[in-house]
Design a protein that fits this description.
83 residues, mainly beta, six-stranded antiparallel β-barrel, 6 strands, single chain
Length: 83
C-alpha cells in the first residue's frame, strides 16, 4: 500500500537544476531546466511547452544526448523516462 508522498520510483533522484535542450524529430530545439534526474529518467521544467512530442532527444550537462519518452505532464513540468 502506498501513502501520500511515499516514494514510488525505482531509482533515487538527485537534484540537478541544470539547463537542458530538448531536440525534436523536426530539428526544433527548446530549452528547459533539468530539475532532477535518476538512472531511469528526469523531471524537466519548460518556460513554454507548446506542443511537446511524446519522444525527443534531451541534452544537458556533459552527457551525450539521450532519447526520452514523456511519462507525465503537470503544467510546465514534464517527467521523462530514458529510452
Amino acid at each position: 500500500m502506498l501513502f501520500a508522498g511515499q516514494e514510488r520510483r525505482r531509482s533515487i533522484r538527485t537534484i540537478a537544476n541544470v539547463p537542458g535542450t530538448a531536440t525534436f524529430a523536426n530539428g526544433r530545439q527548446v530549452t528547459c531546466t533539468v530539475v532532477d534526474q535518476s538512472d531511469t529518467g528526469a523531471k524537466l521544467a519548460f518556460s513554454a511547452i507548446g506542443l511537446l512530442p511524446e519522444r525527443f532527444e534531451l541534452s544537458f550537462g556533459v552527457r551525450k544526448a539521450r532519447s526520452v519518452s514523456v511519462v507525465w505532464r503537470r503544467g510546465s513540468e514534464v517527467g521523462v523516462a530514458f529510452v
